[in-house]
Specification:
Blueprint (H helix, E strand, L loop, with lengths): L16 E3 L3 H11 L14 H12 L8 E9 L9 E13 L2 E11 L5 E12 L24 E7 L2 H7 L10 H6 L9 H15 L2 E10 L8 E8 L4 E6 L5 E12 L1
Antiparallel strand pairs: 1-3, 2-5, 2-7, 3-4, 4-5, 6-8, 7-10, 8-9, 9-10
Length: 264
């Protein structure tokens, strides 16, 4: 794409972007993850909107190259039908300087043809400064959701491979699919995109109940590399859940607090 890149600033408004998830697209991406293609039935896995929100920014001139997901808020206001067209409307709410570079606070909502908000995907990401490679510090670190992983119920384990991760990944941030780009950013290998990891956790949630509404706070604690095995774990209440994607050594890679959970 011929894009005029913009230096991010608070108040920058994205151009509207039309998105949809077809049955074929969902099946392709879930298969790349190793998740059963019918895991979400006739509805869309809302994890896709994490990536769609990022690409809405890219299409408006905000590069995602080298950026690292830190915190993702994801709200499904109602189930999304496969093939349903939605419009992404977003902005950069804030930009903050941190020792490693800058953090971008973005807000994106997806509206249906009636103007109703169907999904909200707000995010805090780190835009590293190449001159500060090796520097630590990206702002205040939220307290962990999972304190003791031994208290979580263990579920499916998924073996990631470079081939699977490349099949899932889309253009826009080469640290997810190119070895040299990952090494340049200070990683030993490409790491999966945040949205890819969330698919595993949402599939587990859907295996217990098909949500009509939920709000999730998602924390990307440690990079998950494209050659690691990850295990889904969780604990559950009637209207809430805590889910985690565990790395091979048992440490939390991604964790999610789901609240206000309402079943269909």
């Amino acid at each position: 794409m011929d894009i005029q890149w913009v230096d991010p600033y608070a108040g920058f408004v994205y151009e509207d972007d039309l998105v949809e998830v077809s049955a074929a697209y969902q099946a392709e991406k879930l298969a790349a993850c190793g998740i059963p293609v019918d895991a979400f039935g006739e509805h869309v896995d809302p994890s896709f909107f994490i990536g769609f929100a990022i690409h809405a920014g890219i299409k408006s001139g905000i590069t995602a190259e080298g950026n690292i997901n830190m915190l993702q808020a994801l709200t499904q206001h109602r189930p999304i039908r496969l093939g349903e067209a939605l419009v992404a409307k977003g902005c950069i709410a804030d930009v903050k300087s941190v020792p490693r570079g800058r953090t971008l606070h973005t807000e994106v909502r997806f509206e249906d043809s009636h103007g109703e908000v169907v999904v909200t995907a707000n995010r805090v990401s780190l835009k590293p400064d190449p001159e500060k490679l090796g520097t630590h510090g990206a702002g205040e670190k939220p307290k962990p959701i999972v304190v003791d992983t031994n208290r979580l119920e263990k579920h499916e384990t998924y073996q990631l491979t470079p081939e699977r991760v490349k099949r899932y990944s889309t253009e826009g941030n080469s640290i997810h699919y190119e070895q040299k780009a990952a090494e340049k950013a200070g990683f030993r290998a490409p790491l999966i995109g945040g949205g890819m990891g969330v698919h595993f956790l949402m599939a587990q949630l859907w295996s217990r109940t098909a949500p009509a509404f939920f709000h999730a706070e998602i924390y990307f604690r440690r990079p998950i590399f494209w050659d690691e095995a990850v295990t889904v774990a969780g604990s559950y209440e009637r209207s809430s859940a805590v889910l985690a994607l565990l790395k091979p050594e048992g440490k939390v890679g991604t964790e999610v607090a789901v609240r206000d959970l309402q079943s269909q």
